[in-house]
């Protein structure tokens, strides 16, 4: 029997499994997902006060669609012999989908780095939540004013004083100027102090030292400076992009027998843009990569990667949220309206469970247009 093996159990891995099961139909094909976790972790929800709500049992998705789950970590991908080594055991494949995701870029040699918190993983978010539980007036420093840092800072501002620190001279540097004014207004509303053009150079017990030499009170320092693809990508390609991702073609093929999805894939969206390391891309990337891995073995036509329009939705805690559309991130909704859209997105990213038909139907919908997204014609005139 031929084997499709998927490495990773996040958005990309799970939807690859469903995509492969969709293409398989009744054919004789084994689909195996290898990941150490028992749960699919919905990382976009990890800034929330109850991180355990951001986890879905993998067995409830993989079981109904007859995908085997091997709970192990892959250390080696041998593309010549077509095997992966997972916790010391070899697993052979005919087609592989690499969907091992990304992880937080951690500081190199920062004194006190072991005291840092993060919301990159379920365990990280649980640790931060447990550390601050029951404390009403803590001081928190958030390092990194990008998407994740802004969500962490505005969530933490609900019960404490927050200082937001970034090397850049502006907040949300990589989000561009589109939403900046709305972000600044939200930070002001929540009383979040900013120290821009600076970083943290030391973390101690109850304090942090900034690069300008000042010491600040810090019951928790949350590190959120960006993500990088899993190092497994280095075993697939020598031509990784700046985020460590594998270049892929329009069918998401990185090598003749290897497809790549999610935060490990540098796929083109159009002539000008490459996918973001975001679940809104990881999900359709997974659906297409998994489908194609199986279709390639079964002689079925492959699918092209055609995601829906690019949007972002940033949670800003007590100040609501910001929903943007387009690569210039035009603000379509802010305040309470933006917050409500984010709440709906955070529910919509949960995959269907326990129902093979619903899971396979969702795997077949690559371009998602959610009903609550405001459309272009609703953009207020500039
Ligand atoms: C706090 C936070 C907020 C975010 N907010 C948003 C948002 O609002 N919108 C948005 O679109 N995106 C957001 N993102 C980004 C989004 O979460 C990621 O783009 C998405 O999780 C990528 O999915 P993935 O499946 O590629 O990778 P991951 O979710 O990282 O999953 C990777 C999987 O691979 C497994 N794995 C890793 N290494 C191995 C190995 N060696 N062997 C086997 N398995 C392995 C992991 O255990 C995991 O199961 C956010 C991320 C964070 C951290």
From TrEMBL:
Its cofactor is FAD. Residues 3-282 form the FAD/NAD(P)-binding domain. Pfam families: Pyr_redox_2 (PF07992). Signal peptide: none annotated. One of its GO terms (molecular function) is NAD(P)H dehydrogenase (quinone) activity. It comes from the Bacteria. GO terms for biological process: aerobic electron transport chain. Keywords: FAD, Flavoprotein, Oxidoreductase. Belongs to the NADH dehydrogenase family. This is NADH dehydrogenase.
């Amino acid at each position: 029997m031929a084997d499709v093996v998927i490495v990773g159990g996040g958005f990309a891995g799970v939807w690859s499994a469903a995509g492969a099961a969709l293409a398989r139909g009744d054919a004789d094909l084994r689909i195996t997902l290898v990941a150490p976790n028992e749960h699919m972790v919905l990382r976009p929800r990890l800034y929330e006060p109850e991180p355990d709500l951001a986890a879905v049992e993998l067995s409830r998705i993989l079981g109904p669609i007859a995908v085997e789950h091997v709970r192990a970590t892959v250390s080696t991908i041998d593309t010549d012999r077509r095997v992966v080594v997972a916790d010391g055991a070899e697993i052979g494949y005919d087609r592989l989908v690499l969907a091992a995701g990304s992880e937080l870029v951690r500081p190199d040699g920062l004194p006190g780095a072991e005291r840092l918190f993060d919301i990159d993983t379920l365990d990280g978010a649980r640790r931060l939540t447990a550390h601050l539980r029951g404390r009403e007036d803590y001081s928190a420093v958030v390092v990194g004013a990008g998407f994740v840092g802004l969500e962490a800072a505005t969530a933490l501002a609900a019960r404490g004083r927050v200082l937001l620190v970034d090397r850049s001279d502006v907040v949300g540097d990589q989000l561009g100027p589109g939403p900046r004014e709305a972000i600044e207004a939200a930070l002001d509303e929540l009383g979040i102090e900013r120290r821009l053009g600076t970083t943290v150079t030391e973390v101690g017990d109850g304090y942090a030292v900034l690069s300008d030499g000042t010491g600040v009170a810090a019951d928790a320092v949350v590190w959120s400076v960006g993500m990088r693809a899993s190092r497994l990508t280095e075993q697939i390609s020598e031509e990784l992009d700046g985020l460590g991702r594998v270049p892929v073609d329009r069918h998401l093929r990185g090598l003749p027998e290897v497809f790549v999805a999610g935060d490990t894939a540098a796929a083109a969206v159009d002539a000008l843009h490459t996918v973001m390391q975001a679940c809104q891309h990881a999900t359709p990337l997974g659906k297409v990569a998994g489908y194609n891995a199986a279709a390639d073995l079964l002689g079925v036509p492959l699918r092209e990667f055609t995601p829906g329009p690019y949007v972002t939705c940033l949670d800003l805690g007590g100040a609501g949220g910001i929903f943007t559309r387009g690569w210039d991130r035009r603000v379509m909704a802010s305040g309470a309206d933006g917050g409500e859209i984010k709440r709906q997105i955070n529910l919509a990213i949960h995959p269907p469970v326990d129902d093979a038909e619903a899971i396979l139907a969702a795997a077949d919908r690559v371009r998602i247009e959610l009903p609550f997204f405001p459309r272009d014609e609703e953009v207020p005139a500039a």
